[in-house]
Amino acid sequence: MRNALSFLLLMLVSTVPAPAEDNFSFPQDQKVRTVGNAVFEKLENGNILFSAKPGKGWPQIIFQDVPVDPEADRLFIRIKQCSPEKKDIPVLAESVTAGAMPPRYIHSLLKPGKFVDLALKLNPSAQRKKMTFRIACSSPKTAGAYEISGFRSGKIRTLADGWGFENPADSGTSVGPAEITGEYAFRGKKSLKLDLKGANNCVELIPDITDWRPYKQLRFTLYNPQPVPNLKTRILQINGKYLPRQCSIPGGNLTVKPESHSTFVLDLDTLPASVNRGKITRIQFFKGSPNTVFYLDEMKLYTAEEAETSSRNKLREEIGILIRNLRENSVHAGAYLKQRLDETAVLLEGSLQDLKQVKIHMTKARELLALTAVLKGRPEPLVLRGVPPTEKIFRDRTFNAASAVPFRISAAGNERESFQIVAFPDRKMTGVTVSARALSGPDGTEIPAKNVRINPVGYIELENSTAYSSSRNGFWPEVLQHNRPLDLADCLQPYWITVYVPSGQKAGVYRGTVDFSMKGKILARFPYEVRVFNFSLPVRGKCLTFFDWRYSPKDPAVRRRCYDLMLDCRLNPTGMYVNGNAQDGKRKPYQFHPHPDDLEHCLKRGMNLMCIWYLFDPAAPFQFSREYYAKVKTFLEYFLPVLKKHNAADIAVVNGFDEIMHQDPPEVKKRLGEAVKICSWLKHDFPDVKLCNVGKKMTISTDLMDIWFLAALPKEKTRDLTGKGGKVCFYSVYGNPGLMIDLPGMAPRILAWQGVKYDAAGIAYYSTYRPWAFNCPGGKIPTSINWSSRDINAATYAGRRSSKYRPTRQGDGNLFWPDVDGGVLPSIRIHNVRDGIEDYEYFALLRESAPNHPLLSIPDSIVMLGSDRYTKDYGKVSSYREKVAEAIEKLNRSANR
After folding, report:
1. What is the pLDDT of residue 237?
2. 486 C-beta neighbours (distance < 10 Å), count
3. pLDDT in tens, 226-282
4. Do the Cβ atoms of 767 and 814 come closer than 8 Å?
5. 362 and 403: one domain?
6. Do 639 and 508 have their domain in common?
7. How far is Cα of residue 211 from the mean position of the Cα atoms in its chain?
């Protein structure tokens, strides 16, 4: 009962650590007396020490004629519990003067050995200039001592005034591990430290204004002091309710970049219907694990008028900075850029009335400034820079990368290796073409020009990009478009260059160029080198890939091109959910991914896994009738001979029980029972068929499953699965590293490295292409270099009108983009996945020749398990990969002696 009472009282009493410079004192004529088994003494510093001895009753100290401002709504007290440990002594603070202040228990707010400031609520109807006040202990079982610095009355700032956390009157009421500190203030000198330790911890702020219907927004600023981003999402809740994905803070997710401030804006119109805006009682900052610290500052409720005024003032400030930068850079720019900088400055000066236009002009200003920064002092009309494939090039951010000349990459035989060339035009250029020459190598050998693929990098606009510390709204480099003449002007333009080194290519350094031309005249030439190693990667690799592919264009030529794009990336063009509708081959025709006409082609190109059936019956999900068993039997008896004819039976799998362990325990038990039955039957009747599962580790016999696609786990948690010959592969969804657009460029590549380090046999992802989610207006596929949010939906788990729409999941389930001919365009992400898989094959070759080689132990500085625990440094990864390649070369030379 006492705990419940204490919690209730916490709702009404504010506590913060005492700011040292705030002046608390007693009047010289302050009248003080004690009652019961208590004494007091005045200390040399002017404070009063109140001591209560053990015993029954209410030992208390009474302060008479405490001055109170008639307009005050709080009495502020500075007090310290002197004992070094927590004492279970209920401590009551109340007024003796009738009606002046309700009684409040304060013992839960005291901190042993530390001063805290308490803000006790005064009764607004009690208009008095003085009051009598007491602090009493209820039947203390042990001795207690409390040092009191003084009192002060005053008014608190409301949430509509804004909480700056500068002092108790400016801090509202908090419950949980929160304290005012002089660290990391966004404005002013102080902030509220949220020290969230342990699992499922929470800080609650109790708003003094409970009716939020007159307000439009809640704004606040958080600082993350850690050198890494949040390792686990922190959640904002209102009245204990999770915020929906469609909220202005989607899902309530609070992600702050390392050692940075981030301001969050909660649009109150986006709160869920379950939240009564007329009675808001709690603002909660909640986290699961691990331990974390945030610093909260500048929290305020805004009316619609205030929000608009604040936004416009901030916009004016940003515009002013941009105009100043445009003017400063115009002085040193060439004739064309000077004109564009000046024109954009003029447009910004007069565009504040049209918010849509001003944002367009601001983006253009930033793009021009980024372009000008590179071109400053350069006489060439077109400047070119080489950039690694894991670097995402934003047009509106200053480009700082300096590249070696010539730019250098390396590759084995039968490997594709990419890099970027970024073009910086100092004038308007129309119809610029980009072409590659053959690479010349040792002893007159060449890598032909046709082996060099060039793709202009297209940009796609992201909205609600908030899920990761790397997230930002705006245009992201993403789509690898067809090479064609482009107009270059006013912004940088990256080109994605991919060199395919044929199997068995002679080792050595190959030199080539990429030419940029206009009207038949070369504008600039970019030199680069490819170091070719003395070994080739196998056609069929060791890394199993299960990236769901279910798109099958009717045009055979288009379909084949789609398959080749997957196979170029060493991904198997097969689906996770093939025949998942209980197909009977008649009324419901069988599904095949890849198409039977392309099976032999895909096998020759290295396909190493093919799903032929997904165990699921829509008529009775996760239950399997006799009729269903018969359907599976009929299909396997028909298709297994076909696979054997193509020597493909060894790569075929039957998949089932998608994320079965993610359900409630009774449902898990029921589904596992059905899974055991059908797997046992398959193992008995079709012993050569491999079975696999995607999701959390199933608690069934390891004899019933051959391949387990699990979230990344340490080796000790998968040895029971691999000990009897089973294989474990790592399955990625929304984590970091992962495959969302707004993650760092290294994230897709490092997935395979994580697999190598923790003995995974491959990697998996639930979807690669979801054309139904694009929401292109009128079904028209965009063809420009920039795809706006009006042209296409980038959050592609589901369409915008779907109840399953996830606006913060950028590129979710979609690693390809639509092409106008019904085919697909690859993404930057899928090529970085490819590079990771090829890295995996390097390690596989090294392991075959030297199973205990020290390079097989990838250091923690490159990747570890957990969120965001991997390097973003391309140089570090590339250097380690080259060491692995050199070790393979050395072993090859030794074997050939």
Report:
1. 86
2. 18
3. 776 555 556 788 888 888 877 888 888 888 877 888 899 999 999 988 999 999 998
4. yes
5. no
6. no
7. 33
Q: Report the C-alpha gap between 419 and 640 in whole angstroms.
A: 42
Structure-block tokens of residue 304: 């619609």
Evaluate whether residue 427 is within a structural domain.
yes
**CA–CA distance, 764 with 692 (Å, rounded to integer):** 12
C-alpha to C-alpha distance for 550 and 814, rounded to whole angstroms = 12
With a pLDDT cut of 70, the percent of the chain lying above it is 95
Answer yes or no: is pLDDT of 648 > 50. yes
What's the CA gap between 95 and 133, in Å, rounded? 4
Mean pLDDT for all residues in the chain: 90
Interval 485-506 mean pLDDT = 98
- Give the integer Cα–Cα distance in Å for 95 and 99: 8
Distance CA(836)–CA(176), nearest Å, equals 44
User: pTM for the full model?
Assistant: 0.81
Q: Do 543 and 762 contact (CB within 8 A), yes or no?
A: yes
Sort strands 610-615 and 652-656 into parallel, antiparallel or unpaired: parallel
Give the domain CATH number at 733: 3.20.20
Indicate if 137 and 47 belong to the same structural domain: yes
Instruction: Identify whether the C-beta of residue 587 lies closer than 8 Å to the C-beta of residue 604.
Output: no
Residue 218 inside a domain? The answer is no
Place of tokens 């009051």: 131
φ, ψ at 496 (rounded to 5°):
-95, 120
Cα distances from 367 to residues 362, 387, 390, 424, 632, in angstroms, run: 9, 18, 21, 11, 58
CATH number assigned to the domain comprising residue 399: 2.60.40.10
Measured distance CA(897)–CA(893) in Å, rounded:
6
pLDDT in tens, 726-757: 999 999 988 899 999 999 999 999 999 999 99
Closest Cα partner for 657 from 709, 702, 619? Answer: 709
- Say whether both 613 and 739 belong to one domain: yes
The answer to whether position 198 is within a domain reads no
β-partners of residue 824 are 818
Q: Does residue 580 sit in the same domain as residue 697?
A: yes
**What is the tally of structural domains in the chain?**
4
Helix (H/G/I), strand (E/B), else coil: 22: coil
Query: Strands (DSSP E) along 102-210, which ranges?
Result: 104-105, 115-121, 130-137, 144-154, 173-175, 178-181, 191-196, 201-206
Residue range 429-469, pLDDT digits in tens: 999 999 999 999 999 999 999 999 999 999 999 998 888 88
DSSP string, 440-482: E-GGG-EE-GGGEEEEEEEEEEESS--SSTT--SEEEEEEEPP
* Domain-embedded: residue 176: no
Measured distance CA(326)–CA(319) in Å, rounded: 10
DSSP string spanning 724-777? TT-EEEEEESSSSSS--TTS-THHHHHHHHHHHHTT-SEEEES-S--GGG---G
Q: What span, in angstroms and rounded, lies between the C-alpha atoms of 684 and 329? A: 76
| Res 41: pLDDT | 94
Residue pair 113/80 in contact by the 8 Å Cβ criterion: yes
638: region left, alpha or beta (phi > 0 left; psi from -120 to 50 alpha): alpha
- Beta partners for 64? 31
Residues 65, 843: Cα–Cα separation, whole Å: 81
The answer to whether 301 and 215 are in contact (CB under 8 A) is yes
H or E element at residue 361: helix 355-375
Residues 370, 401: contact at Cβ < 8 Å? no
Question: What are the backbone dihedrals phi and psi of residue 574, each rounded to the nearest 5 degrees, phi first?
Answer: -135, 155
Please state, in angstroms and rounded to a whole number, the distance separating the CA atoms of residues 14 and 531.
Answer: 66
> Cα–Cα distances in Å, from 23 out to 78, 164, 178, 257, 883?
10, 19, 22, 37, 64
Q: CB under 8 Å to 74, separation ≥6 — which residues?
A: 14, 119, 120, 121, 122, 153, 154, 155, 156, 168, 169
Domain that holds residue 438: 387-536
Calpha distance 95→86 (Å, rounded): 25
